[in-house]
Design brief:
The protein has 66 residues and is an all-alpha fold. It contains 3 helices and no strands.
C-alpha cells in the first residue's frame, strides 16, 4: 500500500476515535469514516505488487493463455 494511503488511513482512524459522541451526526460521520477505511483495506488486497525487475513466469504464462 502506498505510504499516502497508510497515512490517510491513520488519520481516518484517529478521526473515528474522536467522533465517539452519542449524537446522530457523530454516528453518521463515524460510519462514513469507518466505511472509507474498509474500502481502503479492500483496495489494499486488490492492488498488484509494485512492479520490480522480477518476473513471475507462471503468472506471465497464465496471462498469455487467458
Amino acid at each position: 500500500m502506498p505510504p499516502t494511503f497508510v497515512l490517510a488511513r491513520d488519520h481516518l482512524e484517529r478521526a473515528a476515535a474522536i467522533l465517539q459522541g452519542p449524537d446522530s451526526q457523530s454516528r453518521q460521520l463515524r460510519h462514513i469514516i469507518e466505511r472509507t477505511i474498509g474500502l481502503m483495506e479492500e483496495l489494499e488486497t486488490e492492488l498488484p505488487p509494485e512492479a520490480g525487475n522480477i518476473l513471475d513466469f507462471s503468472a506471465f504464462r497464465r496471462g498469455r493463455h487467458a
